[in-house]
Amino acid sequence: MRQYDCEPTLNDSETLEFCKNGFMMFEGVVSDEVNRMTNEFLDEHDGTEPTEILDEDWFMDGVIKHPVVAGAIRSLLGKDFGLPNLVSNHRIQRPQPAQEWHYDGGDIFGPQLNYVQVFYYPQDCPRELGPTELLPGSHFLYSQRDMTKHYGRIRGSYHAVSPAGSVFLTDYSIWHRRSESWGSGLRNNVKYNYWRTSPPTRDWVEEPGFDAATADYAFHGPTFRKQFQDCYDAAEMYFWLRGEHDKFELLGGQGWPIPGNRNDLPYGAPEGVR
Ligand SMILES: [Fe+2]
Questions:
Q1: Mean pLDDT value across the chain
Q2: What is the pLDDT of residues 220-251, one digit of tens each?
Q3: What range does the domain containing 89 cover?
């Protein structure tokens, strides 16, 4: 597996946001020229797995190693992360009905982040062209696949409406689907994974004033589980990424990390962690 390293770009709050939501969008970061070359390549290699695009330097430099994307991956997966070795293209002729809600086979639920699933749109994807629909926070929402696909619209879902050149990073376990489309034409949606090769540690951009004891772990959206479960899970994932999973412990009740207007540090905040 080919590996890559670069400077991390995410700070503590941004890393924690990824833990909470299970995805992160970078709109329009890839250049028009690379978008055009990608669309042309995909026209000429009209298959569901155009992995040979990884042999193209312009694609590796302009998309896979793009500083904004690679910097975020470096922050989440650590140094010398593994580069994609398989590319899928969800190329559809529109209009289409919505796909069933699902998460992809190969997911392992839990606080660990050993790979990141990435989607790249080489053309504009407005709402009428069926952007990927994601359910924020659902990377912690375990369910058998047969129990996810019967849902229709779900309150709080996010449509990845975005301009050409947008790239979004997702936790592999996140619930997603192709949303319904009523426009016409072809849509490419290129998908691949990056891999962790080094143990998790807090070597992203350290944020002055960030305090893991008082950070906001709350999930600000519709929740689908018992109150504060999202908060617990986001905190656990954040601690796993810091390489301090052994320090994560829950007291329950009004203890850390649930939100609240306290007059002191929350009870149960991990000792010696800032
Ligand atoms: Fe999928």
A1: 95
A2: 888 889 999 999 999 999 999 999 999 999 99
A3: 3-195
pLDDT of residue 95: 94
Does any domain span residue 181? yes
CA of 99 to the centre of ligand 1 (A): 9
pTM for this prediction: 0.96
Give, in order, the Cα–Cα distances in Å from 28 to each of 92, 116, 128, 188. 21, 19, 18, 15
Cα-to-centroid distance, 246 and ligand 1 (Å): 32
What is the count of structural domains for the chain? 1
Please report where in the chains the tokens 């992360």 appear, as a residue. Answer: 81
| Ligand 1 ion: Cβ-proximal residues, 5 Å cutoff | 104
Q: For tokens 């375990």, name the residue.
A: 142
Cα of 150 to ligand 1 centre, how many Å?
A: 15
Residue 103 lies in a domain: yes
User: What is the Å distance from ligand 1's center to 38 Cα?
Assistant: 21
**For residue 136, cis peptide bond before it (omega within 30 degrees of 0):** no
Q: Distance, CA 77 to ligand 1 centroid (Å)?
A: 21
* CATH assignment of the domain containing 129: 2.60.120.620
Q: What is the per-residue pLDDT across 155-189, written as a single tens digit (0 to 9) for each?
A: 999 999 999 999 999 999 999 999 999 999 888 99
Asked whether residue 22 is assigned to any structural domain, the reply reads yes
